[in-house]
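In response to reviewer comment 3 from the previous cycle, which asked for concrete evidence that the modeling workflow produces usable outputs, we include below a single protein chain processed end to end. The sequence was submitted unchanged, and the resulting structure tokens are shown without manual editing.
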Amino acid sequence: MTLVVIDLHPLWDWFRVLNESTGIKLTIFYDAFDRARFFNSFLTSVRLMGICLVASVVIGVVGAWIQGSKLRVLRLFTQGYIQFFRNTPPLVQLYFFYFALGSYLKITGANGIAVPLVSNFTWAAICLSFYAGAFNVEIFRAGIEAVPRETLEAAESLGYSRLKAYAYVILPLAFRISLPALNNNLVNLIKTTTIAYAIAVPEMLYVANQIWSDESNVPEMMNVLLIVYVALVGLLVWVMGRWERALTIPGYSPA
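The workflow returned the following structure tokens.
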């Protein structure tokens, strides 16, 4: 197997010439140090987005199932969780997790310095997953309630327990009905990951700020950020749209 290596140096040199001739300073292309740190920040942002997307959907599915539980304590707990995360700004939640809860989760190292048990990236992933998960719970609950009651009764008459009826019959139908609203919430989640900047997570906005502070190229970096986020959100919308069309149910949604 032959590995093909593409030489990108002519492209990097083109951006250098562009800077010399027009003053457009895109150092993330022709400066190796800026290019490396911006690329690493891109990977960090994508990793944070991926973790939060998956975790928020899992929280939404579990929360929607608990909301239909016969145990009142569980339903009240879920309602409290939803109200807390839905009625407070995500930036305030992030500060609460990182500065309030994080201040209690420290150990003292051998040198006598307190070391946090949870990293800023982990706090950002936890906070944003719970934030988006609270909305996903309501989205999946609405989808479950849209499934006719007779469907659940039919599943139970065939011997399904409540959990199995939920997992194999109700949830697949509800998931398809919930996809349009879920799509909107996940797009919002991707955009909200930029607030991880506030607790020094080295994602794209944080590193872009460092680069424009060093290179004085704010307009160029802001345009780069805008284009990258439009591309990432566009990719998610495209995937969700394809998934939604593939799962279209005659009678539940337009063909």
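The chain has a mean pLDDT of 89. We consider this sufficient to address the reviewer's concern, and the full set will be provided in the supplementary archive.
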